[in-house]
Amino acid sequence: MAGTSLLFLAALWTSMVNADVSNSLEETITRNPPTNISISHGDLGEYTLSWEGNCTCKGKIYYQLNYTYLDSKDNEMGTYFVQENQKALDFELHRGLRARVRLTYGDNLEITSNWTERTFDLSGELFAPVDNLACIFYGDAYYMNCSWDVTENASEDAQFILSYRERNPSEVYNCTDYLVDGGRNIGCVNHKMRSVDTTKIIICINEVNKKDKLPYCRIMNPYSSFKRNPPTNISISHTSLGEYTLSWEGNCKCNGKTGCQIDFTYLDSKDNKMETKFVHENQKALDFELHRGLLVRMRLACGDNLEITSNWTERTFDLSGELFAPVDNLACIFYGDAYYMNCSWDVTENASEDAQFILSYRERNPSEVYNCTDYLVDGGRNIGCVNHKMGIVYTNKITICINEVNKKDKLPYCRIVKPTSFYKLDSPIYVTINKSTEEVEWTLPNFYLNTICYKFQLNITNLNERSTKLENVTSTNHVISRDNTKKYSVHVRAVVNDNCGESHIWSDWSKPLIIDPDGKDMSFLTIVAVFAVILVAFVLLLVFVCIKCKLLSKLCQPIPDAEEKFKGLFEECNGDFQKWINKSIQVTNKAEDSSLITAKEFQQP
Length: 605
Description:
This protein has 605 residues and is an alpha+beta fold. The chain is built from four helices and 39 strands. The termini are far apart.
């Protein structure tokens, strides 16, 4: 019992002591805020803020320092915690500065003193007489271009130098190449920096031989300077057949991973999908179908994944149709192993009566231009190019343009096409079927491309039911499904598939393959058997004919002539048969008597 009482008294004493210490610490901190904040210039762009205070801080006791610029739009403050009575920081002091300091205790600032504040709004006369210092950075080796304005209070002989450093105030570098105006430096150009891949650079302008003046400094993130320096003043000019040069203004002489990103799309595009180019110059020559209208945007960009970019600069080019050759709806197809071409176009209403047109085309090189040699003519005016054997074969892209003759002030009407996208194959031939496997086979007259470049379509029609189905395949054979009691027709056509450009134009259908029902489609053995049956039937027919002829010979005896058989019936008896019989009997009797007499006479000795 006594031990328990002692432990209770010890715990009570400890809590009382801790409470006294806590109360004493809070009272000490709250009653001793920092005083007399001051600032002094150290190295290039570096200033030391200092203050007075009785705190020899350690542990969880700190001075909290906040600051912001007087011209800051959001008044957001930078914050530092230090245990000394001073802090060296980089400042753009010409902007004016508001600083405040207080004592704090604890991870969550449980105990704090009151704030002590001071504003430093120094006169511009204390700084080098310049303003509006701006820089851009470019190239893998970090080249720098900077410019500044000289203020009105500068003396006539005032001269300036640009110095810069990274984090270490003792490592200061100077610009080597200046932009000069009236003998006075007003910019630093194409300077190859000594500090690379940093996120903060202090760049300062000092007036020469004016050590009493503070430098005019800017603290810059080289990457963030991109945002403040987008390209400007985008323009376009026609250079050669279907080729236009986009140009713009900008301070970037880019290389390596730093360049200008160009996006563009046509105003009549259905999906507004943009094509992208990256360049290091301030211009880019590209092939355009400019009659469609063009939306262009540009920005500075840095890094493999465009980690840092400027804002976009946009421009729309929506030119009047009167600036182009007065044609429309230019369309072409390509065919044959040597790339023959057929093209047609419509002449618009604003064309003059004597307007004449020529078709020209080229591949990538703008100087290698070819002209159509055979035209389709309507009313003395060219409206098409027919059966033209091209001077370029199997190219990825062709620029085809229609120019109005003797109208150099008018831009050509151009289309940029992939020949494979408008290539028409020859119709498949030799379409056959193996009925034992139901496999239909065919071929092409010529395989101009690799065999993986073709796609085929079968049109299978049930002629009895007048029903049709289409089947797409990638080989020159396909097993079909059919009702063997029905009659079918099969057509095949071909097209270039997406492995090689994906043409939009199918070949013509092949000649139909007619498939009769299996009962009417006899095999060779069946044909032999039928022939044998026919032969036997023919032989039997001959035998039957022969037999039939003998019976007829007996049944069809000739009819006797009555005058031959019954002599005298007509001549002597006038056809009276009874008279003829009686007369015949008398003659017969006389003949018998005569024969008897003769016999008797013959018998006498």
